[in-house]
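Here we describe the complex-level prediction in full. Unlike the single-chain runs in Section 2.1, the two entities below were treated as one system.
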Amino acid sequence: MHVPDGFLDAPTSIATGVVAVGGLALALRGARRELDDRTAPMAGLVATFVFAGQMMNFPVGAGTSGHLLGGAMAAVLAGPWTAVLCISTVLLVQGLFMADGGITALGTNITLMGLVGVAAGWLVFRGLRAVLPNRLGVVAPAAAIGALLSVPVAATFFTLLFAIGGTAPVAADRVLVAMVSWHAVIGIGEAVITFLVVASVVGVRPDLVHGARSALRARTLEIREPARDGGTA
Amino acid sequence: MSSTPVSRRRFYAAFLVAALLVAGGASYYASSHPDGLEFVAGETGFLDRADDSPTANSPLADYSTKGIDDARVSGGVAGVAGCLLVLGISFGLFRVLRRRDDDRAEAEQNTSTTSGA
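The structure predicted for the assembly as a whole is:
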């Protein structure tokens, strides 16, 4: 979903640039609370893995492909603020070195994939975790559903920006229908990849998964409780 | 469930190798069709508004390495280089942002001394 230079006019690009800078400033503050000696290397690896994952375009039919955005995956693995920084780093390297996504469009891309993609994925994940049992087994499915929805939400935001500042006289409703329908399909790929990656990490080192912390604490308490009861009885 | 967990170092190494294998190897088999946005732009008629990126002449532009003719090697080198760039920047950034364990130990020490006093 990398927006090239030229799709959006200058005022819209400047506005998304301001939004991106504001979001990054908040993320730099928020990430301090998420990162420690153990999770900082993990977060760097998550960013690297998202970069790699974004190279794997998968076919979605009729001559179209999709690729991982990684916002939900990064948020669940590393924490939402850290995820914003992960995705933004990926977008920066892609824009500066790979000519993937424009330079004046960098603020737009950070806004769409970094801020909106991460926020949508994380909020859906948190919502599901709040209503589902607090178990480790819930983490990967909830992450996958967050991922599934994050892609069409980001696509909708692109259409909104295009309706405001698009440089071509194309009816916004046509763009909306096409963007959302294709990205709903791409979201399925996003969900599958996110599920596999998050489930693998939760299976091996759940203590390194930000979104698994409360489930891990709950499990530790359950294990300790009967032992203590047994001791007193 | 209480079997010996994979050491953190080993886990990090495996995660990095997985990323490098995807970017450096598997990406050769990625679909080369336009992605969702590019396809929609073409279909609805605004693809021609796209400008060439100012970095279009970068040695790694479009995930291929300038000067390497073999597509598989060229893409693989670009993928690995990109991974290392992301790794370097994000490692540095997150290292600076992280809470240090010695900070926490110090904070704990402070609270234990104050609660003890």
